[in-house]
Amino acid sequence: MNLLTTPPRWLLRTLRVTIPTTVGSAWLYSTIYEESFMKDLMYAFLVVSFTQALIVAGRHGLSYWLRKRFPENLDAKRNWPGWGLMAPWIVGSLIVGYFAGVALGDLLTGTHREPLIIAADTRMVLLSIVVALVPAIGINYFLYARARMAAMETRTQAALRTAAENRLKLLESQLEPHMLFNTLANLRVLIGHDAPRAQGMLDHLIAYLRATLEASRTGLHPLSTEFERICDYLALMQIRMGSRLQIRLELPAELATLPLPPLLLQPLVENAIKHGLEPKVKGGRVEVTAMLEGGSLILTVRDTGVGLDALPEHGARFGLQQVRERLEALYGHAGHIELIPATDKEGGALATVTLPYQR
């Protein structure tokens, strides 16, 4: 913003109050004392300007002092030192502003009055102070209310972030046992039939759990890490399903470092196998891809299984709900998921996750 062509908003707000106050004061003085309106307009302008300048300078100065002494004071960060400091400063500014404005007005008009004579006109002094007090209180109350609202909004946003983080931790704590119990059940069956394959499955499980533990210590990890964890999980499933499971993972190198919430795609991959490929005698293929489209990151999980018509009413919705709630908590309306039937001859289902592009 160019300050030479566009006045700052605080100046416009001050002028909206100062100009009517100055004009009203001049009219009031000229009516009561039967003096020249233009002359009283000049005096009123000087008194109000001095008063406002002192109040604004005091507000910024006191706020600066508070920020230095109490860095965590939210009101001071927004240039509001509080009524305890501002109230006496406003009163002092009104008195000093009145005498300074009158003195400068006398200097400009060539009027000579002794300071005691100025102070002796009690009615003029009180009238000037009252007239200047109204806009001073109005402006400062507006600043006070704005500071309080901003502080309340900050606390509200912090509470919402904390609630969202706690909710995500709860969702992940539900998701981890869900996947782990399924894997352990499969491992138990495999031990009795094929010990070498069970050993390989256990190795992949250990690698997966180690990666999961590392990811639990951070809110985001690279997209490449998400694909590595999916690869570990699919390796576990491939040991159990054998040739019935084909895998295709496609991650462009330029997207590998993009941040992503851990385990975001895991429930979609699990659903693709459990409810798409396992019920199909011949099995099928799971495809996980990533691409940029406009300003969004598009992640897809596609299976060539039995399709959405065979999807049970309960159980399969668990993973979808986890992803939907995490997207809403993290990205709001900017992140969403869509599950539709695959449109080619291979059939199956296609889950698409859309996220805002982040570097």
Molecular structure report:
This protein is an alpha+beta fold. It has 2 domains: 9-157, no CATH class; 194-356, Histidine kinase-like ATPase, C-terminal domain (Heat Shock Protein 90). Helix content is 65%, strand content 12%. The chain has helices at residues 9-33, 37-69, 74-77, 83-109, 115-120, 122-193, 195-215, 223-241, 266-277, 317-331, and strands at residues 221-222, 245-250, 259-260, 284-293, 296-303, 336-341, 349-356. The protein has a 5-stranded mixed β-sheet, with helices on one face. Strands 1-3 form a two-stranded antiparallel ribbon. The model is unreliable at 1-6 (pLDDT under 50).
Number of domains: 2
Structural class: alpha+beta
Radius of gyration equals: 35 Å
Shape: rod-shaped
**Count of helices?**
10
Distance between the termini: 27 Å
Oligomer: single chain
Strand order of the largest sheet: 2-4-5-7-6
Comma- or semicolon-separated keywords:
10 helices, Heat Shock Protein 90, two-stranded antiparallel ribbon, 359 residues, 65% helix, disordered N terminus, alpha+beta, rod-shaped, 7 strands, 2 domains, five-stranded mixed sheet
